[in-house]
């Protein structure tokens, strides 16, 4: 196992969701950082999403939210996003990077475990 990918609950997760506009995405991003559910959140405006919903093909402009957290926060962050999200069925995906810079991982872990 690489020393840059520890195998425990402090392993990094990148959690993705898409939102209808920059205002909604910014509000959710601030809440995730304020509540120590994510150490860092990046927003990518202007993505085009195509999907089928209730039998109809939809095409929407959305904002992609990418939150950096740890495995130990998965249940909490996914529940919070589900509760706060404006969509009936939000996309909530998590990926574990196989490798990441150790100091960055320690910073993410300290931020999501901080009480201040």
Could you please describe the fold and organization of this structure?
It is built from 3 helices and 4 strands. It is of the alpha+beta class. Strand 2 and strand 3 form a beta hairpin. The model is unreliable at 1-7 (pLDDT under 50). It has helices at 22-34, 74-84, 102-112; strands at residues 12-19, 40-53, 56-70, 93-95. Strands 2-3-1-4 form a 4-stranded antiparallel β-sheet. The longest helix is centred in the first third of the chain and has 13 residues, at 22-34. 24% of the residues are buried. It is 30% helix and 34% strand.
Note the main attributes of this structure:
116 residues, 4-stranded antiparallel sheet, disordered N terminus, alpha+beta, 3 helices
Quaternary form: single chain
Tally the helices: what do you get?
Answer: 3
Helix and strand element order? EHEEHEH
**Which segments are poorly predicted (pLDDT under 50) over 5 or more consecutive residues?**
1-7
Distance between the termini: 33 Å
Helix content: 25-40%
- Overall spatial form: elongated
Number of strands: 4
Taking the sheet with the most strands, its summary is: 4 strands, antiparallel
Strand and helix map with partners:
Blueprint (H helix, E strand, L loop, with lengths): L11 E8 L2 H13 L5 E14 L2 E15 L3 H11 L8 E3 L6 H11 L4
Antiparallel strand pairs: 1-3, 1-4, 2-3
Describe, in short, the structure shown.
The chain is α+β, with helices and mostly antiparallel strands.
């Amino acid at each position: 196992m690489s020393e840059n990918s520890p195998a425990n609950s402090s392993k990094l997760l990148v959690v993705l969701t898409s939102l209808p506009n920059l205002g909604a995405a910014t509000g959710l991003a601030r809440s995730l950082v304020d509540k120590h559910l994510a150490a860092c959140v990046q927003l990518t405006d202007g993505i085009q999403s195509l999907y089928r919903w209730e039998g109809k093909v939809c095409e929407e402009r959305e904002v992609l939210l990418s939150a950096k957290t740890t495995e130990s926060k998965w249940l909490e962050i996914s529940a919070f996003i589900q509760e706060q999200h404006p969509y009936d069925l939000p996309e909530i995906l998590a990926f574990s990077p196989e490798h990441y810079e150790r100091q960055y991982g320690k910073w993410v872990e300290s931020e999501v475990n901080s009480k201040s």
